[in-house]
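Dear all,

This email documents one entry for the complex benchmark we are building for the journal club exercise. For each entry we list the sequence lines for every component of the assembly. Then comes the predicted three-dimensional structure of the complex as a token string, followed by one or two observations. Please use this as the template for your own entries, and keep the labels exactly as they appear.
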Amino acid sequence: MRHTLAVLVENNPGVLARVAGLFSRRGYNIDSLAVGRTDNPAISRMTIVVEGDDRVLEQVTKQLHKLIDVIKISDITADEYVDRELVLIKVNAEPEKRGEIMQIADIFRARIVDLGRRTMILECTGNEGKIKAFEESLKPYGIKELVRTGKIAMLRGSRYTNINSNGSKEDD
Amino acid sequence: MKKSGAQILVDCLREQGVDTIFGYPGGAVLPIYDALYDADIRHILTRHEQGAAHAADGYARASGRPGVCLATSGPGATNLVTGIANAYMDSVPLVAFTGQVVTSQLGKDSFQEADITGITLPITKHNYLVKDVRDLARVIREAFHIATTGRPGPVLVDIPKDVSSAVIEYEDPGPVNLPGYRPVLEPSAEQLNRAAEAIARAERPVIYAGGGVVYSGAHRELRRFAELILAPVATTLMGLGGFPGDHPLALGMLGMHGSKYANYAVCECDLLIAVGVRFDDRVTGKLESFASQARIMHIDIDPAEIGKNVRVDIPLVGDVKRVLSALIERLKAKLPGAWQEKIQTWKKEYPITYEENGRLKPQQVIREIYRVTKGQARITTEVGQHQMWAAHYYTYTRPRTFISSGGLGTMGFGLPAAIGVQVACPGETVFDIAGDGSIQMNIQELATAVNYDLPVKVAILDNGYLGMVRQWQELFYNRRYSYSELVNPDFVKLAEAYGAEGIRVEKPADVRPALEQALATSKPVLIDFIIEREENVLPFVPPGESLDRMLG
């Protein structure tokens, strides 16, 4: 089963290497990892999607906790949350195909962010399923390049995950 | 007040109560060595940085205080790596300081540059590269705090040369504040009650005790706990001395080279009380059949150890000493019954013994060391057959008297560790029980022992083989002794060349006089015991087998 972890870490140099190294040496599978600063510049938030059964997840969580820079871990998988990825796709766009591509972009509420002589770059955000569907619809035109962020996620409603709150599921 | 980085380091070490450090100078630590030149800290110059790391490790294990080592950048730092990994596997509080190239040269493949924080990432509890001298005091305080609290472990602090030489107006960084680091010391009351209930109900309890008992200082609590519930106590290699080896409830060591009665007890118990252990594969053998009739209770300070290797029915996260005290309060004394009787029968039926045949046996050497030292010596070991014989035939009754490389299994650990132990325990007898292979991995440290008048005694059980490798080749590789036979130097002459005393013993009758002679001098002594060449360590559970399938 895939789990989504929201991990708050001290924004120290090497913290990403510590987390990534932990996953690789203990043989845990990361599906995706996204990291960026929070509103507090001293703290970063990682969204980690990890594959494994409950026992694996328990170990992942406990091992992450052992890293001094890790402040808090919340497994939000079972909760209601919003998740988003962002993708940039450079697609072949000969003048006669542009209309079709723009229609597809419209359906997915994607934006055209660059227009070249024979190519276009489209930007789309959404959950994994939407991003996948968007990619599939553009495939027939010939995708030249694709880049996507990892998944980021946030709890819905008034509950939240930050260092001082217990609004979210508490870490153990 | 103006201070250099090096002076801040020295002052912080004093503030942490550090009286001794083990190290080796070099280019990137020259400013630090200059500050040490007139500091009120004893510096022991080892002959190899690995020796410094192991000596600091031995010092920490014997004293319970953090061990400190210091090396220069690049090769100095990488030479510490085995010692740091060793301390990490055995949860030893070690703080390693390394020099580093100046910050402007970082990442440029500069002379004697190595990314030591990157290299030691998976083998330290935490590590730091200090790029600003203003961070140095805070980092050092954090390093000692992290190394010595919770589950202890090594912390490395990498200090570029321009940071140690920079002079600043010193400001105290205040107390340690680490929001992501909060070791759990107090067990949950709910789990304590569940545990007490399970213990009260158990008919065949066994305690499986490890290094956590020793590190937590819980040996008295463990004894009271065991006596209260009349549970026999099997110890791991790291746990030897955590429970008196001569106690009626003592089962000795369990696992691959455990006693038969310890392994039988674990196989047949209905409640396994694991205390400060990590279910190492050398202990459990085949996992599916390990304590398969038992509920498992696991007491440990590191929550990540619970359920890592085996399913645990009753987890108790907390400091071993506090957990045991809290359990003792909740328990009533048990009366002896069939289980205790069965244990005593097994102990009589399957004692750990060896065959005497008039030739010099390694087991006899260890027994004699035990008798001559009246069981009061601090023993260090290298890794291999001699280590297991030292575990079987010397009876450890006090914690921190058996000091051995458990998790990493580091040949070359024993001699530098013995130096660290001797520094920590000046008036005591310290023996390194060694093999002829292992001793050569750090034999240069004899010079350190001579240099500082440290009267460590080295007993080499010399069979001219890498004995444990040979034993496995005999049993599993059809006696094909591939590269396990050694051509050795003359150890007696070697000892003498270093300025130590050397004695060779070839006959059983000469063992005791040689040991007495060694103890009579205040010099370091090396005794080369030429033992039966193909003696095996028994009992022996073949790898991957269930604990009740013992050879020997």
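Observations: The two ends of chain A are 20 Å apart (CA to CA). Chain A has two domains: 2-80, 82-148.
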